[in-house]
Amino acid sequence: xxxxxxxxxxxxxxxxxxxxxxxxxxxxxxxxxxxxxxxxxxxxxxxxxxxxxxxxxxxxxxxxxxxxxxxxxxxxxxxxxxxxxxxxxxxxxxxxxxxxxxxxxxxxxxxxxxxxxxxxxxxxxxxxxxxxxxxxxxxxxxxxxxxxxxxxxxxxxxxxxxxxxxxxxxxxxxxxxxxxxxxxxxxxxxxxxxxxxxxxxxxxxxxxxxxxxxxxxxxxxxxxxxxxxxxxxxxxxxxxxxxxxxxxxxxxxxxxxxxxxxxxxxxxxxxxxxxxxxxxxxxxxxxxxxxxxxxxxxxxxxxxxxxxxxxxxxxxxxxxxxxxxxxxxxxxxxxxxxxxxxxxxxxxxxxxxxxxxxxxxxxxxxxxxxxxxxxxxxxxxxxxxxxxxxxxxxxxxxxxxxxxxxxxxxxxxxxxxxxxxxxxxxxxxxxxxxxxxxxxxxxxxxxxxxxxxxxxxxxxxxxxxxxxxxxxxxxxxxxxxxxxxxxxxxxxxxxxxxxxxxxxxxxxxxxxxxxxxxxxxxxxxxxxxxxxxxxxxxxxxxxxxxxxxxxxxxxxxxxxxxxxxxxxxxxxxxxxxxxxxxxxxxxxxxxxxxxxxxxxxxxxxxxxxxxxxxxxxxxxxxxxxxxxxxxxxxxxxxxxxxxxxxxxxxxxxxxxxxxxxxxxxxxxxxxxxxxxxxx
Length: 679
Known about the structure:
Elements: H1 21-29, E1 50-51, E2 86-90, E3 111-116, H2 123-131, E4 140-143, E5 149-152, E6 158-162, E7 169-176, E8 179-186, E9 192-194, H3 197-206, E10 214-222, E11 225-240, E12 244-250, E13 260-264, E14 272-275, E15 286-292, E16 298-304, E17 316-323, E18 337-339, E19 348-349, E20 356-357, E21 387-388, E22 395-396, E23 406-411, E24 417-422, H4 423-426, E25 430-437, E26 442-451, E27 456-462, E28 468-474, E29 493-499, E30 505-507, H5 509-512, E31 514-515, E32 518-519, E33 531-536, E34 545-551, E35 559-560, E36 566-567, E37 578-586, E38 592-594, E39 598-599, E40 608-615, E41 636-638, E42 641-643, E43 667-669, E44 672-674
Parallel strand pairs: 2-3, 3-8, 5-11, 35-36
Antiparallel strand pairs: 1-30, 4-6, 6-9, 7-8, 7-10, 10-11, 12-13, 12-40, 13-14, 15-16, 16-17, 17-18, 19-20, 20-21, 21-22, 23-24, 24-25, 25-26, 27-28, 28-29, 29-30, 31-32, 33-34, 34-37, 37-38, 37-39, 41-42, 43-44
């Protein structure tokens, strides 16, 4: 398993924040370091940089970028009218019932056009915008990134761009094979525009997959001067994200400015406070670090109270679990189970929630804040890995685990494997995959799938097919986004993928912000190598695996170092931590390709958000309402009602093997029939 340094991967300078002990103390306990085979679009190709498993020599960070066409040629657009065979809708009429929404189904044959003009603009202004003008150097896309793949069912993205002066008006056009949109809008400062939801939903419904990109064209007018159109291409997956997203938040305005556990329901534009207790950020008490079973039924979390609080002044009050299927509101005063002497926050929850394996911590910690080199910040140590039944709090015996301290463990979706950082044998530099027999709680067959002599792999997570492991590789020996206190500079970290059998690891360049060795991020020099805390949706959708991660990168002009709605002085600001999602596809031969990430809608812009856990919603009984078979205990959704598969299983219905699926081109991935590659 040779190690090679990917070409063109510069190591950027480390950013350091100056300050006295007060800021350092706060930074210590803030969540940056303590967690209280198809055609490519717009030039994005298979991720380039790779790194081997056992490696001699250090590996640099990141590589990759910008796609040609982010700033297109000048010239007018096509307007909003229809042609023969086109259904022309006004904006208010655009929310028609889709004729096809399931994965892999073809789009309706009739072309649809939506016209949202004139809006507030005059006919003369619209005519000038349709004619177009030059594109000055100051005008460029900030978000979304060219080549981003979006699933269905999400709130529409906010288009964000830069230009010398705020626009007075904007003309937006969206085009695909079977869809046209034209919209006229007043300008604003900073320059941004939310795509109307009806237009976004209709664009997804009409899309036919990877060979049918959505072209976005934006023309603006300022003081009578027309610029644009800017052009970029986006792509739609023929499927939607499944389940609920749970995440840690800090300084949340809707959670009392304290650490909390939040949730985002499918398609929601705002989060819900799931677990929150009164406290003072960053001291606490708070409940934030958590893990969720893949089936969405059980959640394990831990309660902290820093400044000599908790058990023996350690900062740990207790660990507790909750049944997410029992009630819509969790009672923090009556958890399902709790223990007072162990950390469950970073544990590996078994897919059905029947057991958890704790995150072992190798090195000793002391009050007032638990933290040590080689440990995950906020976790008490030394504290070896143990197994519990989170439903009762009872300890469970197990055997065969080769590491006393299995750090950041995760079970595979099929429950047959576990992956962890093997600190005992690799001093934090290696990942190990082991087989697991749930009938006897026996681990066996340890395989070192990745190691690096200098950098630290962390937060490994299995893909839905249990064949690959996605992880982050960084320079911090505490596996967090800031280095071990008292050093409070930002760590450097990027996302990689490696087979469960070991071999060559590949950097997910496009997700990291790179294309062909160059950064495509709109604020180069500030936003590279800031990718941490990987997780993955347990269900494949549209031929993609959906990788979630926290990044301290800028978010267009909504969140950046200047000229933004929210200004963050640098990446050490808690508010810089946001959750992003990248579509990743892996071929049958194991070649991985990622795509530029999108900002997860629904999270608070004002708070720091990390470690998203996408999990299924607790399944629904036969006869209850549903949107797909993934929602149902019986495994099928027919006429929006849960039941059993009728004969063979369709896409998103339960399966045991590929032979259970109706379509021979569909595979059984993670227990559901799914497209193996994007269409």
